[in-house]
Amino acid sequence: MLPGSYKEAAKILRSGGVGVLPTDTIYGLVGSAFSKKTVEKIYQLKGRDHSKPFIILLSGVEDLSRFDISPDDFTQGKLAEFWPGSVSVVLPCPLDEYEYLHRGEKTLAFRVPDSQGLRDFLKETGPLVAPSVNPQGEEPAKNAEEARKYFSKEADFYIDGGELQSEPSTLVRIQDRAITVLRQGRRRVK
User: Fold this and answer.
1) pLDDT for residue 3 is more than 70
2) Rounded distance, CA 102 to CA 105, Å?
3) What is the assigned CATH class of domain 4-183?
């Protein structure tokens, strides 16, 4: 059962809204991965380079099928090792219908968070894009108050999870049975 503030937030996200919430690493500016309009709004709010795709939070590995992604056995084994956890994994996603997400890269980065509460929330909302809470070039917000200073009334809700001063997720690519670390973050991967 989700707490009241999360129930309301889930309703807002399902209807195309954007908001700020604590993840298991840092605060995220979140919106539905299946709403092109919502994704574009987040790019605009952050002033983010439109060629850089966002990381997408999933409730579990089974959500990959919603993006028509079927990992091979090697990849499935690595995903089981990394998830849930603070490792975001870049996987091939060549479908044109997701161009607004992969930005022509034909790949998407996914993560299944460590937090059971957040995974339960994602079951209610569906996959969410979840970039850090900051305009491009600024430091990520460490609390809801800093997030409000960045985005004021532009976000539809703010969930206060206290002070978060973690590193972002580690970002890896799995391709041709090899793992490449693209960004070393909270969890060390070799």
Assistant:
1) no
2) 5
3) alpha beta
